[in-house]
TrEMBL record:
Residues 23-249 form the ABC transporter domain. SUPFAM superfamilies: P-loop containing nucleoside triphosphate hydrolases. The keyword ATP-binding applies. It comes from Algoriphagus marincola HL-49. This is ABC-type transport system ATPase component.
Amino acid sequence: MTENFLLYVSVIIHYDTNTLLMIQVQNLDFSYPKKPQLFSQLNWESSTGNIIGMLGKNGAGKSSFLRILAGLLFPDNGQLSVLGFSPEERASAFLQEVFFVPDENYLPGHLSAERYQQILQPFYPRFDGETFSRLLDRFEVNSQEKIKNLSFGQQKKAGLAMALSSGCSLILLDEPTNGLDISGKSAFRKELISVLREDQTVVIATHLIRDLENTLDRVMILDQGQIKLDADLSDLADSLHFGISQSAVPDAIFSQSSALGVQFIQERTTQAQTVVNLELLFEGVTSGISIASFLSNTNSLTA
């Protein structure tokens, strides 16, 4: 198996799950050759056991950030620790504990999903073949068919089944619902929640915000190369009130017109707890409002 063949397969780590921090990013700088700087003095950290949504517009740097965590891109400056390893060193113990699924299809077209699983499984000590077979059935993917003969959505689901069966401590998913139909998105959300162990962490990069509703534990909003918000969904629900009004709301932190009326965010005091409107939150944060002062706890809030 060639270096290029392995490049998009995974990233993994031999790591003590009792360690408080799984990922530590400190003062990270990154730019592509002859391009403007993408990240400048970026800071972020994550503990174990979360499903984290990395939300951002196209071109915000979501894919690049995942590839840096996976050891596929190298920062210009700063410190980066993932599961106790420096990703760019690509130690074998690291590559056994991180699984990266890019937006584009990474599976070899001349193989079937079943055959690829047989080749891949020895690289991942906790890979669960039974779970993989069950997920292929759940996602309606023919395990015997050559991957090149599958639709784009089926190829995407085969790759997601690989990731969810890998047993890796850290799973990085780039636009996982892109190309999936409604039933495929629903099946992915349900299986993501049911399959994961408590000591696994998943970071999902997406601009399809609605696809992750009721799935995330934590949300991070990346905009213009900076992390503008990083907070637990439970804290957002405790601290903020989301609603719709037929008129302007004077004390709203952020509001915008919609077909149903004026959608708004305000500080929660005596109001009943509401479901976090991720789309409205994203629009507010990327328009420049600061949420930090309204939250009782933030993770790595930088703006």
